[in-house]
Design a protein that fits this description.
It holds the Pfam family Ribonuc_L-PSP. The protein is α+β, with helices and mostly antiparallel strands. It has 2 helices and 8 strands.
């Protein structure tokens, strides 16, 4: 594999749920695959309660936001980048009406010093029973 197109995986972030890396470096840009709030080594999702069939019975968007931001940080740092190097963030929420205000407040805490471009969209469902997922682009110095 050439150094200008390097696949990268974090030892701290949750394992991908499909055939894709956590991130791919192209030149000095780092493209992250979609990152959710799951914990590494388990199917546990912080802030989510599931019924026996795996359906969401309740969730805490604040807990999920903090967990997903931590997972993004793990991937960035393990790839040789940092939170301050984020330049573009796409956020997928499954419930814009109920979750946007809380997510936006927490986002402002985490991004008060670095303000990347941001797009937030609502989707009807994500691949695992989560309420938020981030897709990010960062630079690598």
């Amino acid at each position: 594999m050439t150094n200008d197109k390097e696949l990268l995986n974090s030892s701290k972030a949750p394992e991908p749920v499909g055939l894709y890396p956590h991130a791919r470096r192209v030149g000095n840009l780092l493209f992250l695959s979609g990152v959710g709030p799951r914990e590494r080594g388990t199917k546990k999702i912080p802030g989510v309660e599931l019924d026996e069939a795996g359906n969401i019975t309740s969730y805490d968007i604040e807990t999920q936001c903090r967990s997903v931001f931590q997972n993004v940080r793990y991937i960035l740092e393990d790839a040789g980048s940092s939170w301050a190097n984020l330049v573009d963030v796409t956020v997928y929420l499954t419930n814009m009406k109920d979750d946007f205000a809380t997510y936006n407040r927490i986002y402002a805490e985490y991004f008060k010093d670095n303000q990347p471009c941001r797009t937030t969209v609502e989707v009807s469902k994500l691949p695992t029973p989560i309420a938020i997922e981030l897709k990010c682009i960062a630079t690598i110095d």
